[in-house]
């Protein structure tokens, strides 16, 4: 009996804490009672008989007013800038290596790392190969791409995201 009483009290207290949305009621010409959130929602001819208190409109959600297309363009532009900066840095490193006469050793070590990381990738169906000087073409899952990039970074040849 005590357990049932405590359960009933808990249900009543929890129910009282829930917000009630429809707090204005009115009866139409057929005598049907309607509940609405605001006096503004009551048709003009029934407002005089409406009873209750209007609730304030809900606050706007955080996603209202966000231009998602603009955000996507900004992200794409940022990625392009990062890619250009990485390509410029790679070109500067290549030029410095060329001036020092070690470009052949760098390329062969890098290409060897690409082959080794592609061959040891744990993801089925993943492949990577050198598509152009200092460029890698990859095909496969995001997990395989992550494993490949990690392997390349561990080998001392970090890759950039295009």
Structure explained in plain terms:
The chain contains 4 helices and 5 strands, in the order αβββααββα. The N and C termini lie far apart (68 Å). Among the domains are: 19-54, no CATH class; 101-162, no CATH class. 49% of the residues lie in helices and 13% in strands. The protein has 162 residues and is α+β, with helices and mostly antiparallel strands. Strands 2-1-3 form a 3-stranded antiparallel sheet, with no helix packed on it. Strands 4-5 form a two-stranded antiparallel sheet. It has helices spanning 2-17, 68-100, 103-119, 142-154; strands at residues 24-27, 33-36, 51-52, 127-132, 135-139.
Helix content: 40-55%
The helix-strand sequence is: HEEEHHEEH
Name the strands of the widest sheet in spatial order: 2-1-3
Largest sheet: 3 strands, antiparallel
Feature tags:
single chain, 162 residues, alpha+beta, 3-stranded antiparallel beta sheet, two-stranded antiparallel sheet, 49% helix, elongated
Topology:
Elements (H helix, E strand, L loop, with lengths): L1 H16 L6 E4 L5 E4 L14 E2 L15 H33 L2 H17 L7 E6 L2 E5 L2 H13 L8
Antiparallel strand pairs: 1-2, 1-3, 4-5
């Amino acid at each position: 009996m005590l357990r049932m009483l405590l359960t009933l009290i808990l249900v009543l207290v929890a129910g009282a804490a829930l917000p009630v949305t429809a707090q204005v009621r009115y009866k139409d010409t057929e005598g049907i009672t309607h509940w609405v959130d605001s006096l503004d929602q009551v048709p003009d001819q029934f407002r005089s008989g409406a009873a209750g208190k209007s609730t304030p409109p809900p606050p706007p959600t955080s996603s209202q007013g966000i231009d998602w297309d603009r955000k996507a363009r900004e992200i794409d532009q940022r990625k392009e800038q990062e890619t250009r900066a990485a390509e410029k840095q790679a070109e500067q490193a290549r030029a410095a290596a060329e001036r020092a006469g070690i470009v052949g050793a760098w390329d062969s070590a890098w290409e060897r790392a690409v082959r080794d990381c592609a061959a040891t990738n744990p993801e089925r169906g993943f492949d990577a190969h050198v598509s152009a000087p200092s460029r890698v073409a990859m095909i496969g899952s995001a997990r395989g791409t992550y494993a490949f990039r990690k392997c390349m970074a561990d080998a001392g040849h970090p890759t950039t995201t295009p």
